[in-house]
Amino acid sequence: MSNNKEVLLSVRGVDISFDKGGKKPFRAVKNANFDIYRGETFSLVGESGSGKTTIGRAIMRINELSKGEIYFKGKKISGKISKEDDREVIRSIQMIFQDPAASLNERANIEYCVSEGLYNFHLYKDEKDRIAKVDKALEDVGLLPEHKSRYPHEFSGGQRQRVGIARAMIMEPELIVADEPISALDVSIRAQVLNLMNKLKEEKGLTYLFIAHDLSVVRFISDRIAVIHLGRIVEIAETEELFKHPLHPYTISLLSAVPMPDPQIEKPKKHVVYDESKRDHSGEKPILQEIRPGHLVFANDREMKEYEAKLQEMEKLEASDK
Amino acid sequence: MSEKNDLFTLAEFDERESEHIAAPRYSYWKSVWRTFVSNKFVVAVCIFMIIVVLFAMIQPMFSHYDPMYAPNINDPSSKFLGPSSEHLFGTDNIGRDLFDAVWAGARNSLIIGFGCTLINMILGIIVGAIWGFSKKVDVWMIEVYNVVSNVPFLLLAMILSYVLGSGFKSLIFIMCVTNWIYVAYFIRTQVMIIRDREYNLASKCLGTSTWTIITKNILPYLISVIMTYISREIPSNISYEVFLSYLGLGLGQQNASLGRMISAYTSYMTGYPHLFWIPVSLLAIISVSLYLVGQALADASDPRTHR
Amino acid sequence: MAEKKIILSAKDIEVKFRVRDNYLNAIRGVSLDLYDGETFAIVGESGSGKSVFTKTFTGMLESNGQVTNGSVMYNGKDLTKLTTDKDWEGIRGAKIATIFQDPMTSLNPIRTIGSQITEVIVKHQKVSGEEAKKQAIDIMNRVGIIDAAKRFDEYPFQYSGGMRQRIVIAIALSCHPEILICDEPTTALDVTIQAQIIDLIKELQKEFKFTTVYITHDLGVVANVADRVGVMYGGQIVEIGNVEEIFYEPAHPYTWALLSSLPQLGVKGQDLSYIAGTPPSLYNVIKGDAFAPRNKYALKIDFEQEPPFFKITDTHYAKTWLLDPRAPKIEKPEAIRNLHEKIAAMTSKGGAYYVEQ
What we know:
heterotrimer, B: 307 residues, mainly alpha, MetI-like fold, 12 helices, C: 357 residues, alpha/beta, Rossmann fold, eight-stranded mixed sheet, four-stranded antiparallel sheet, 11 helices
């Protein structure tokens, strides 16, 4: 299905390293490769330190790459690019941040916060038009026009995050990088923000790169999922495929860690612990390779064979169930 | 249905209703003002300070006091007079009126204190903001800072006052030529603390220019620390003027100066103590009240004190 | 349950915080009996008072807070009457220990892990330094620190977040507490680490036989750890019951809303249900049911009069007018009906959350 779709963003062989004061540079992202198609929600799932946020920030041109390229609509956006391209990229790719308390300017009112991008690109005809746009953006995220003159600290966490969404949406971007947009929120208001993001995606034909650490959230929102562990993408698949046929042991460990709201099932459950150091490293070097169309897993030939056998068994069982 | 049972029907539910914010509107400057005036003692000090400052500015315009003009120098009966209705603070060793003299001195001290603070702060904030924001500028500015901060200020003041001569303008120049760099260094450190906060990153992602980030995102956060700095800077500049003039490096004979006065009257401390204590007290009153008011303003401009 | 021994009993607790010239009514009349050896989970949003309530068990309220009513009986003593650190000696940290969300609040960054554990052991058990070190390494091993003897002399910054939390647990357990209060111990951790820490606490509980109070905002975690659950909202417990009762037969509309907003229950292509609006401001006097303004099922009386606790079973109580015989019959939302069947389908072979064991 992915062949006839337009690739919006392409990450090719990306390495990102950070200098750690003279010592060997720390490789936060190792040889990342993936495409994001127009109109989909692509999720990047991993734990803290996995490099998922680093990739998101590299797309936003905040982090520099040490190797590889990033293309947006076929145009290279990593490294040195022209001023016009830079402005075009800034306008077309917007970010939603994790902590709504930290990512809003506390000394500016909501009107300024939401208008900031409009001012920078002068995306309005006159003052009246700007106010109208701000009102519309606030309404889109379920806030009220009267909130314009309020300051961020007067809002609840969920409301603040919706201000963050409004300020990104007002730019009419094509791609939104959402960096753990709900992990700082209470479970009870996460749902509202997720619904809102889905609704806006439908209405505006957006594409999301959704960064998260929790598979349960990701299943609800995404079309495709990439699982990342210690800077390395270990599995990519369509959502249903990944949940049905998880192959990489780290994906399975993430899956088993999702707490289910049912005491009879949750209490006896055993968590699968994944320990990189205890894996069998024999055989040649593993690479990210396709095992089914659209389903990629990080493995060497020996592991590939094991995964293939496992996958066939699962498929056989499903066929017999039908 | 009876009224009692009516209570047990579903109420109307409006989702948007719960989005309203009940708290009264927040305005930064209004809250600063409210917090400031809520401290009655400081308000009293502030009013007193304003009166003293205004008086120091206006009184010399009428007295036309000139330290070089001493018509009673040869009249022993008008020397060393104690306070009286004619000479409120008495007269000095050459028969000059002390009341006129201290106010003229206070006026000069205040002008120099405020003027130097203004110049240092403006220069310091502009340079410091750029210095703190740009890693490239930081590399060589820190070297400049190291060199400048290792030159002893008194030595520099001595050399400059020989070269430029004593006087109003040269004193302001001496007190500003290097001191702004300390303000800049302070601002640089403050900017660096908040430069990499996420909301600045967010602004960058929205395409906001560095200049707008500095003026809209960073400086508003620094209002409180800048106020604290100013509240220490003005009294310390006033004391500096006095100190330099006391050493003879500041204002010359032709300018009224609290520093020169204190220096000249030290020798009469035992015989005519009012000559020494009156200028010293006025200096203390001005410095302390400026400091108190400045600190209160600094506190009030910190949003954590707002409610 | 009746024959179970009550280890701690809080009655009609009210807590107020003085904030400048105003009073914040953080806890508005909460009673709770804690049974020996059980795990009691307190669930609620931030600001519901779940943390503040348990701080009255250890006298750790911030200095502007005060218990203005009620009592906490433990071992024949009313804990609300204790004031000085000396009064608390032998109880706080010894009999009743707390693990916080951020392990660094309990660890000293400039001292070695080992010295921080031995210090507690020496203080509470009055043993020699050598013996304390042996015990410390034992307990580090017990909480899953690999190479404990080697890592004994390392500093907190050399440990990962999950490892630090293990150390905090080790310190808490080193004085053999009777009650362990876990205040969102896994909220700041990754999901896989969260699962490991929860497993660890459960195992240790079996071994050391302490009573656990588990504070969280995540019902998924509650299902795993709790024997009984109290749901808190606006400074009150609004529903209390056995864990099965809370998950399979919830009665309070707030519990319904909390449960149905879990993304695990979301169906792709449909909206998740959620709780609109914001929690009540506890500076104001709350009239009626605090949850009413956000409650889809609010009755008119909810805005007028505070509901009492209605008894559902001997162990299950809920504070909602919906249980009044005069109230209309309202069924819980679709998303959480037949919860067990739904989740069983999700986690069995072919379901989205099926994991080969």
